[in-house]
Automatic annotation (TrEMBL):
The lineage of its organism: Eukaryota, Fungi, Fungi incertae sedis, Chytridiomycota, Chytridiomycota incertae sedis. Residues 48-378 form the Kinesin motor domain. GO terms for biological process: microtubule-based movement. This is Kinesin motor domain-containing protein. Keywords: ATP-binding, Motor protein, Nucleotide-binding. ATP binds at G138, Q139, T140, G141, S142, G143, K144, T145. It comes from Chytriomyces confervae.
Length: 553
């Protein structure tokens, strides 16, 4: 076995290859050029939904720990690099490219983000007495609160505070089924959890026990806003020392003036989404909290998707609104007036999907990407069936190898992780199933020498072990579902194992096949057709056969 020093040297070399490969690829695509643009034209999309992706700069702590960025944004696209350490081939770097309505790098100025993604929507809403909803979604510590705070500050500067115009503000947080009025909270004062949301006869949300305050200036609006943020329920999590554990909603009505303004702005800072591994050290209360957060985020996604699809159809929408599950969570009940397309008011929704930039956050970034993709795909006029689209995209991202008929044993660890996450809807992760014996993070940098590859470990585990691990490490109790996923995994494995060998290629969600060789530190990027893929496989097989026959001579 190699000495520790040799292994350390090899690990360092891998990392520097990875970093160098990213830098080289970035320079070829000319990424990171952030140019200031003027506010865009009013959106032509009928659905008035725009979905933006933003990352943040590395924190000092992340730099100290040696993390490096793998997520980059330009004006038009976001690029994610992730390692693919295949069992049967050389290691390589996969590239995933996202295109959202807005793509914002960590260094993109807040004024630029506001002017590009929000400002025009605000003026549209103001002129039509509509409702503008701005919401931030992402893992804990990804920059949701930072983005919402800065957007609020820029937005308030555009409020028309003259000619008898007032802003009426209310601030609530939603934690599970509990709603609190944060405006009445103060130092050492307990926030009463007695606020309620009801839907009136017209289907509009009515908040009870929530105060509304009048603000006459920008400064007063911001004072309320900052007070609300300060009073919000936070907890220390693995990712963020003061992680927001509630959904924060600040509603501002802008009324009065000669033009008779009656517009509404809702600023929604969603609680941080968590994946299975974040929940590892949770006690029962925290676990319940995390499940409730994820459930409400899912129901929000469902309501936005169904509302947007409905607003795109010309048929009588009112009959169908009952199929939109607004009552499935307090969050969606409170936002119903902003999302329900059957209500007569003009509405516009701006979603910010936030992701942390480091290599350690890749599973979360994929999670956020999938959430945002499910919303973004609705804006594509030529692809109305969003559920099919999302299903296809999820299937592609989770089982890209199956397209090239690769077995799970040729999947990279990241792909295996994504497949497991999708099977369990983010409630169980690969590391949960592996347990400490199979999880390389328990073995430090020498993992490769001690731990079986993840695919092999899963394959060799009995049904009882799968179930026990899911229960112990993810506290996931649905034994039948665990059993079914295990069966599916084994079937995938067995079906292809006999016939196919790995070919060193992988497909990104966007369908581009990208191979960046780490070993030679040479960047080769290529879009491959099916025929070319087949050729690559044939060549690999031929080379393997030649090698075997040479060695037997
Ligand atoms: N674009 C950015 N530029 C500079 N710093 C940023 C940016 N985005 C986030 N940060 C910093 O990153 C840290 C985490 O951000 P923030 O608290 O906004 O995360 P969050 O997603 O709201 O987390 P949680 O869900 O746990 O509350 C903060 O210290 C914040 O100042």
């Amino acid at each position: 076995m190699d000495s520790a020093n040799t292994l350390l040297g090899r690990a360092m070399a891998q990392k520097s290859h990875f970093v160098a490969t990213i830098a080289k690829h970035q320079s070829t695509v000319g990424a990171r050029a952030i140019t200031q643009t003027n506010a865009p034209e009013p959106s032509s999309s009928k659905s008035n939904l725009s979905v933006n992706f933003r990352t943040r700069p590395l924190s000092t702590a992340e730099i100290k720990q040696g993390f490096f960025p793998v997520l980059f944004c330009t004006e038009t696209q976001t690029t994610l690099y992730y390692p693919s350490f295949r069992m049967l081939t050389d290691s390589s770097v996969d590239v995933q490219e996202f295109e959202f309505d807005g793509n914002f790098a960590g260094e993109a100025g807040d004024a630029h983000v506001y002017e590009t993604a929000v400002q025009q929507k605000f003026f549209d809403v103001l002129n039509q007495n509509g409702i503008l909803t701005i919401m931030a979604y992402g893992q804990t510590g990804s920059g949701k609160t930072y983005t919402m705070m800065n957007i609020a500050e820029k937005l308030v500067n555009d409020f028309p505070f003259e000619n008898d115009i007032s802003a009426f503000i209310s601030i609530i947080e939603i934690q599970g089924d509990v709603i609190r009025d944060l405006s009445v909270a103060g130092e050492g004062r307990k926030v009463p959890a007695d606020a309620k949301v009801l839907l009136d006869g017209a289907g509009l949300p009515v908040l009870q026990n929530v105060a509304e305050y009048e603000a006459k200036s920008k400064e007063q609006v911001l004072e309320f806003f900052h007070h609300g943020f300060a009073m919000r329920t936070t907890r220390s999590t693995l990712k963020n020392a003061a992680s927001s554990r509630s959904h924060f909603i600040c509603t501002i009505r802008i009324c009065g003036g000669k033009l008779g303004f009656d517009a509404v702005v809702k600023l929604v800072d969603l609680a941080g989404s968590e994946t299975g591994s974040d929940k590892k050290d949770h006690d029962a209360v925290r676990l319940k909290e995390a499940i409730s957060i994820n459930k409400s985020l899912m129901s929000l996604k469902e309501c936005i998707r169904k509302s947007t699809l409905l607003s795109e159809t010309s048929e009588d929408a009112s009959n169908k609104s009952s199929h939109i599950p607004f009552r499935s969570s307090k969050l969606t009940m409170v936002l119903k007036d902003a999302l329900d397309p059957t209500l007569p008011r003009f509405t516009s929704t701006v979603v910010f999907a936030l992701a942390a930039p480091t290599v350690a956050d890749i599973p979360h970034t994929f999670n956020t990407y999938r959430y945002a993709l499910a919303l973004k795909s609705l804006n594509r006029a030529d692809d109305k069936d969003a559920s099919i689209l999302e299903h296809k995209a999820a299937a592609k991202s989770a089982e890209p190898a199956s397209q090239e008929k690769l077995t799970p044993m040729a999947w990279s660890r990241a792909k295996l992780e994504r497949w497991i996450e999708m099977q369990f809807e983010n409630q169980v992760q690969l590391t949960d199933l592996l347990g400490p014996r199979g999880d390389p993070s328990h073995f430090g940098r020498h993992a490769a020498d001690f731990v079986l590859p993840a695919w092999k470990f899963l394959y060799s585990m009995s049904a009882d072990e799968w179930i026990a691990n899911a229960k112990t490490h993810a506290k996931f109790t649905d034994a039948d579902r665990v059993g079914n996923v295990r069966e599916k995994y084994k079937k995938l494995f067995l079906k292809e194992r006999a016939t196919v060998k790995a070919d060193g290629l992988s497909t990104s969600v966007t369908g581009k096949v990208t191979l960046l060789s780490l070993e030679e530190n040479v960047v080769t990027e290529k879009k491959l057709s099916r025929a070319e893929l087949a050729m690559q496989k044939a060549k690999a097989k031929g080379a393997a056969l030649r090698a075997t026959s040479l060695s037997s001579k």
